Amino acid sequence: MDKFWSDYPDIQKDLEEVRRMIEKCVSNGNKLIRDVLLDMIHAGGKMIRPGFVVLAGRFGKYERKKLCSLAAMIEMLHMATLIHDDIIDNALIRRSKPTIQAEYGKNYAVFIGDFLFCQCFLLLSDSIAVKDIKKVSKAVSRICKGEIEQFESQYDVNITVTQYLKRIAAKTAVLFALSFYIGAHESNCDERLSRTLASIGYNIGMAFQIIDDILDYTGNEVVVGKPLGNDIRQGIFTLPLIYALQKGEREEITPILQKRSYDECEVKKLIEFARQAGGIEQARELARRYTKKAFNKISSLKECPSKQVLTEVAEKLLHRAY
After folding, report:
1. How many CA atoms lie within 13 A of 124 on its CB side?
2. Total structural domains in the chain?
3. For residue 322, how many C-alpha atoms fall within 13 Å in the half-sphere facing its CB?
4. What is the per-residue pLDDT across 129-175, written as a single tens digit (0 to 9) for each?
5. What is the CATH number of the domain that holds 260?
């Protein structure tokens, strides 16, 4: 497991239990499924979303077994979306390792992602109120719509900031918000607190994804764990390039943009265009605005140990290099 939660031993201990639950769930598959998913589980992810479930639960009446089960469900849901996302993007590397579709082919990757979705809802049916099952189902639906919208907008030089924000809300922020809401609501927090925590998760998720997209232009490939410019190669135009296209002089890059595939030199030219036109810095400013919204809502919470942890964790996430 990544050391992200190492300063919070109680949460890390629960996340180790979450990981054991996931290992038990994936062991129900055949040997290939089991081995592939165990590799994915131990690939060093931060376990941010399940961490948010158990952290939000600490604002209410915390039931460890129940919350760990819900956290495991959320993490498997995230894993399934990553597998399917890699298929759509034809991604070869994730966390410095070959993706499942790159190593075993798209067919196996689809089946393994579907298997994970099934295991999610098996866990869900045993540990959550019907009302919240509907919230999870709606979140999954929004994630799917976000992926469809991203696919439909490939190579679209006219994509707007509003369309981009709608896309990342569905792809990332919705699951962050759900993680907080489920953890709080299933721990008997009242609706107002549950919604406040969900809003915090939403704003953290928006800033998180914008930062992630900026790192695709500016990060260290070894640290980030995948090649820079990966979105551009897939024809996915994210905020730094969208802003740059709105205000930069396009003459030099127009011949590149008219193509449906880019070589490495062309990817570098588009990254440099985004930098010179100020798109990267403008994207950072929007990430800071979402960050400010998250911290303003955190400051409105009553003082308690969980509030301090949430403040520190949000700070780490929103000022990260990977």
Report:
1. 20
2. 1
3. 17
4. 667 788 888 998 999 888 889 889 999 999 999 999 999 999 999 99
5. 1.10.600.10
Cα 65 off chain centre by: 24
DSSP state of 303: P
Distance set, CA 282 to CA 156, 161, 246, 276 (Å): 20, 12, 11, 11
What stretches of the chain show up as alpha helix (H) in DSSP? 9-26, 31-41, 48-57, 64-89, 100-104, 106-127, 130-152, 161-168, 174-185, 191-218, 221-224, 230-233, 239-247, 254-257, 264-276, 279-299, 305-318
d(CA 283, CA 225): 22
Identify the CA nearest to 197 among candidates 294, 289, 282.
Answer: 294
Question: In whole angstroms, how far apart are CA 15 and each of 50, 61, 189, 246, 251?
Answer: 7, 18, 21, 43, 51
Structural domain containing residue 57: 3-318
pLDDT (tens digit per residue) in 88-114: 878 888 877 889 999 999 999 999 999
Task: Give the bridge partners for 94, in sequence order.
Answer: 97
Containing H/E element for 93?
strand 93-94
Handedness of CA 236, 216, 288, 322 (dihedral sign): positive
Q: Residue for token digits 């609501």?
A: 185
